[in-house]
């Protein structure tokens, strides 16, 4: 094998390249990216980079020297538009055609705009990449009234960042609670309280939102027929669309994302997928998280070189909002949950444990307790049986349960 093509240059692509070279692969690596940046991570885009507490350079996954040493053949900015499985060729918008021995699709996802008319409004933003972040950060310098549409993780982080800058912030969530797809009702309540205590207005059940652009480009937001004072800036954080078109066109097996086995292989064994775009092999749906993109890509890159490495990581993601570092371990599975235990050490530190019938941990949300998350990863990996009374008792040292 002498030629690997990777489409995308985000978290998954970067770690795939790093792994390929680390494992001694000396052949060609072609990377196609429709952004003009080298491998970078996105989490700070809604946090420190948006507030300009961190620089754009801090987003780089690797140093300039490391990237040089990867000896990547770049095709950027360019867009992969077609995949010909039979000819093992990727067609680019520029007209280039790249023949591969093995292909990795790491195209991630993009921000979803639920109403297409909103895209043409000048002061309505989404946040997915560096360019989006620069534009939004620029506007936040002068805007005072901010509407955030979508009460998921990215929407809540943007709201917290803006509120910390002293902006007046309203969050509009379509559902009846925040982050409903990934956490339980009690965690949604915790999040709502966190934002309301900070002075943000949270509007739930906002199912009939209507936006009108005023002549000065401010935006009027109608929520269930009542209108609020004009907003200077609207940010839509209403979920992501999986960038799976290449696989769709090539008729690979695709559901909500690209179907892969535990080695990252798609229904065509020379084509792999990793990161947001790939369905998690054991959970059966796409996990959109930094750690998933990185670790699935590492395992997949090893498998591409013949060192079959199964990806079985327990999902883990984090979110920073105000003073709260929120870590989510495992997945929210209401049907499997037999007991919920809440451990509140103090005002700033609280953990939610979800146990199955055998008293094993299947999901945990920890606020400001990274050490406990590390330990809980071991509990899940070892299917440890836990005593709910000990979990709840703040005088019991959980570190004893190693
Ligand atoms: C604002 C923001 C904040 C986040 N915060 C957190 C967080 O706090 N914690 C956490 O765990 N996760 C967070 N995430 C999620 C995490 O960043 C993603 O899960 C991760 O970036 C996925 O990596 P990826 O490589 O799969 O995709 P991406 O990073 O999206 O990279 C895919 C790249 O492929 C390019 N591309 C797509 N199609 C083509 C094509 N046809 N041709 C060429 N190039 C193409 C895209 O433009 C993009 O550059 C956040 C995401 C965002 C946007």
Automatic annotation (TrEMBL):
One of its GO terms (cellular component) is cytoplasm. GO terms for molecular function: oxidoreductase activity, acting on NAD(P)H. Residues 316-401 form the Reductase C-terminal domain. It comes from the Bacteria. Keywords: FAD, Flavoprotein, Oxidoreductase. Residues 3-297 form the FAD/NAD(P)-binding domain. Its cofactor is FAD. PANTHER family: APOPTOSIS-INDUCING FACTOR 1 (PTHR43557), RIESKE DOMAIN-CONTAINING PROTEIN-RELATED (PTHR43557:SF2). This is FAD-dependent oxidoreductase. It comes from Acinetobacter rongchengensis. The lineage of its organism: Bacteria, Pseudomonadati, Pseudomonadota, Gammaproteobacteria, Moraxellales.
């Amino acid at each position: 094998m002498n030629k690997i093509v990777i489409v995308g240059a985000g978290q998954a692509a970067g770690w795939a390249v790093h792994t390929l070279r680390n494992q001694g692969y000396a052949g060609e690596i072609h990377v196609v990216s429709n952004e003009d940046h080298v491998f970078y991570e996105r989490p700070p885009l809604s946090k420190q980079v948006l507030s300009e507490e961190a620089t754009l350079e801090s987003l780089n996954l690797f140093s300039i020297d490391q990237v040089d040493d990867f000896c990547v053949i770049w095709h950027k900015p360019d867009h992969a538009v077609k995949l010909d499985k039979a000819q093992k060729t990727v067609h680019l918008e520029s007209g280039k055609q790249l023949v591969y021995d093995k292909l990795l699709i790491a195209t991630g996802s993009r921000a979803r705009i639920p109403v297409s008319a909103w895209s043409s409004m000048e002061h309505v933003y989404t946040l997915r990449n560096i360019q989006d972040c620069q534009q939004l950060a620029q506007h936040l310098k002068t805007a005072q009234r901010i509407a955030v549409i979508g009460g998921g993780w990215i929407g809540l982080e943007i709201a917290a960042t803006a509120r910390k800058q002293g902006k007046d912030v309203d969050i509009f969530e379509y559902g009846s609670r925040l982050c409903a797809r990934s956490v339980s009702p009690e965690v949604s309540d915790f999040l709502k309280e966190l934002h309301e205590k900070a002075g943000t207005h949270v509007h739930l059940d906002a199912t009939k939102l209507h936006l009108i652009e005023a002549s000065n480009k401010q935006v009027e937001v109608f929520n269930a027929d009542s209108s609020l004072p004009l907003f200077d800036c609207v940010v839509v954080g209403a979920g992501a669309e999986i960038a799976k078109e290449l696989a769709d066109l090539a008729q690979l097996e695709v559901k909500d994302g690209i179907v892969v086995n535990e080695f990252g292989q798609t229904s065509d064994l020379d084509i792999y997928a990793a990161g947001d775009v790939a369905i998690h092999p054991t959970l059966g749906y796409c996990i959109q998280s930094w750690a998933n993109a990185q670790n699935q890509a590492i395992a997949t890159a090893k498998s591409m070189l013949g060192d079959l490495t199964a990806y079985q990581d327990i999902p883990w993601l984090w979110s920073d909002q105000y003073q709260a570092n929120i870590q989510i371990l495992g997945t929210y599975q209401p049907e499997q949950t037999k007991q919920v235990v809440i451990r509140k050490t103090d005002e700033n530190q609280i953990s939610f444990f979800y146990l199955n019938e055998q008293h094993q941990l299947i999901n945990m949300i920890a606020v400001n307790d990274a050490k406990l998350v590390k330990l809980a990863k071991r509990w899940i990996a070892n299917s440890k049986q836990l005593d709910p009374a000990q979990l709840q008792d703040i005088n019991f040292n959980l570190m004893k349960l190693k």
